[in-house]
Design a protein that fits this description.
Blueprint (H helix, E strand, L loop, with lengths): L7 H13 L4 E6 L6 H11 L4 E7 L1 H8 L8 H9 L6 E5 L5 H7 L3 E5 L10 H6 L3 E5 L7 H15 L5
Parallel strand pairs: 1-2, 1-4, 2-3, 4-5
């Protein structure tokens, strides 16, 4: 599974070869901190939209910038290994920027996928991908399945088990 984790240069070359072979590249990105069923459903649906699924993970620094100093819970190398272990995922790469725009420009995917917690008009990179003839797919959101929800549940459970009032 670790062979599925690629550097930025490697993923660019790998995607280029796949495109030359006529394969459709599907791209999605996110923090994927505390992997849950909502993530799995998005990734499964994404894989069905093409031949090669590339998952770009926000680096630890990038996650902290977006989510705050207490995140991520799981370090980037472990998150990458977990995502790479999923059979529907072909490749995983990390990016350090707050958004994947530069990586999208380098890979030029045929399909950009996001979970339904993003409206299609809010998908970062939408205009870029559509500009070269690609498509954007928004997979329906699975309510109450987010890392934030899991963290809140853990906090409630911890407080309750220690006799604290909520």
């Amino acid at each position: 599974m670790r062979e599925k984790v690629k550097s930025r240069d490697q993923i660019k070359a790998t995607a280029g070869r796949a495109k030359k072979e006529g394969k459709k590249i599907v791209f999605t990105n996110g923090c994927f901190d505390l992997l849950h069923v909502g993530h799995l459903r998005v990734l499964d649906a994404a894989k069905k939209l093409g031949d090669v699924l590339v998952v770009a993970l926000n680096s630890d620094r990038s996650v902290r910038e977006i989510k705050g100093r207490d995140r991520p819970i799981v370090p980037e190398n472990e998150r990458a290994e977990l995502i790479a272990a999923l059979e529907m995922v072909d490749y995983v790469t990390l990016f350090d920027e707050p958004d994947p725009i530069n990586l999208l420009r380098e890979i030029k995917p045929d399909v950009l996928v996001k979970g339904g917690d993003w409206g299609e008009d809010k998908v970062v990179g939408r205009e870029l991908v559509e500009g070269w003839g690609g498509k954007v797919a928004v997979i329906p959101y699975l309510a109450d399945h987010s890392t934030t929800d899991i963290v809140k549940k853990i906090e409630r459970t911890r407080k309750t088990s220690h006799g604290e009032k909520l």
